[in-house]
Specification:
Blueprint (H helix, E strand, L loop, with lengths): L3 H79 L1
């Protein structure tokens, strides 16, 4: 037969496990919330990166056009000066 000390010990162990389970559930809830926030931040950063890359690409195209215009004007000036 189980004595009262054993029952009390089992009840205490059960309470301890229930407390640990409750704490772990809260830890999981917090971790899931952090994951969602990090996924949102990751998506925002990826979109920002794409926007920056697109803007950089457009600026590079403008720079190439500007350089070509400057070279063309310089070539015309040289031709005019040679004549």
């Amino acid at each position: 037969m189980i004595d009262s000390a054993t029952v009390t010990n089992l009840q205490q162990n059960l309470e301890g496990l229930q407390t640990a389970n409750t704490l772990m559930k809260e830890d999981i809830r917090i971790a899931k919330s952090n994951i969602v926030q990090l996924q949102q931040e990751n998506l925002t950063l990826r979109r920002d990166k794409e926007t920056l890359l697109d803007e950089h690409h457009r600026q590079m195209q403008v720079n190439v056009i500007n350089t070509n215009v400057i070279l063309a004007i310089t070539a015309m000036v040289v031709v005019v000066q040679e004549t």
